[in-house]
Amino acid sequence: MGRQTAIDGAHGTGSGSAKRLDPASLPVKFDTTMSAPPAGGAARVAARVYLDRDTAIIKRPLAGLPLTLVVPIHVFLGVAVEIAPGALPGTLNARLFLRHADPALCVTLREADNAEDLADDWAMWGESLKLPLQMCEPDGSISTISDAPGSAFPPQRRRVYALTARRPRFLNRRKTGTRGAAPAVHRGEREIIARS
Questions:
Q1: Is the pLDDT confidence value at 190 over 60?
Q2: Phi then psi for 33, rounded to 5 degrees?
Q3: Among 13, 49, 96, 141, which has the minimal tally of Cβ within 10 Å of its Cβ?
Q4: Is 60:34 a contact under the CB 8 Å cutoff?
Q5: Is the distance from CB of 96 to CB of 81 less than 8 angstroms?
Q6: CA 186 to the chain's CA centroid
Q7: Percent helix / strand / coil, the chain, rounded to 5
Q8: DSSP calls for 56-75
Q9: What are phi and psi of 146, to 5 degrees?
Q10: What separation in angstroms does the CA of 177 have from each of 171, 173, 186, 187?
Q11: Cα angle 85-86-90, degrees, rounded to a multiple of 5
Q12: Are 119 and 49 in contact (CB under 8 A)?
């Protein structure tokens, strides 16, 4: 019997294949294509990606050498959809990807012939990874459709004493002590000590 690991059965197929990645079954491992760095020469390079709710591990070549990058999910700017004209006149190509500030680190999740095929996946990936949904406009601008779910911090339950300058609640129930009368001092008197 083999040892079970976190990624057993997590092998998916990447963009460009008929089978889609399911955001509900993270972690997933898949092959995809990514933009090459400007000095890389090629426009797109093949990459192997391991993706879970916290981390993306990207294995790709850089200048002919294997490169492994570990990118936290919160570094990605959002789950974006980009719609571009297709190869044939009158067709469109839609791409769903994790958008990063560095275009060479944008991870393509799925490609399709129309945007309707990506609509459900787009919302599910945003909810699963807790990233905002974004749309890449044809002029290159980015518009945020919805904020990340669960990104708002919950309200603080207790205020910090240094900020409120008040006594803690349990000390408010106690009364502050008062200084009693000074003890009587008898000078010049003999002390009586009882001895048995």
A1: yes
A2: -115, 145
A3: 141
A4: yes
A5: yes
A6: 75
A7: 15, 35, 50
A8: EEEEEEETTEEEEEEEEGGG
A9: -150, 150
A10: 12, 12, 26, 29
A11: 80
A12: no
Structure token digits, residue 106 = 């944008």
pLDDT digits (tens, 9 = 90+) for 121-174: 888 888 888 888 888 887 878 888 877 665 555 555 555 555 556 666 666 676
- Residue 82 half-sphere exposure toward CB, CA atoms < 13 A: 20
Burial class (CB in 10 A: 0-12, 13-18, 19+), 37: middle
CB 32 within 8 A of CB 15: yes
Q: How confident is the model at residue 50 (pLDDT cuts 50, 70, 90)?
A: very high
| Residue type, position 74, single letter | H
Identify the pLDDT of residue 9: 46
| Contact criterion met (CB below 8 Å) for 19 and 13 | yes
pLDDT score, position 10: 47
**What's the token pair of residue 34?**
């990514």
Decide: 62 and 40 in contact? Cβ < 8 Å: yes
Please state, in angstroms and as integers, the Cα–Cα distance from residue 191 to each residue in 166, 184, 194, 196, following that order.
47, 14, 10, 16
Tokens 């803690």 label which residue? Answer: 168
Instruction: State which amino acid sits at residue 114.
Output: N
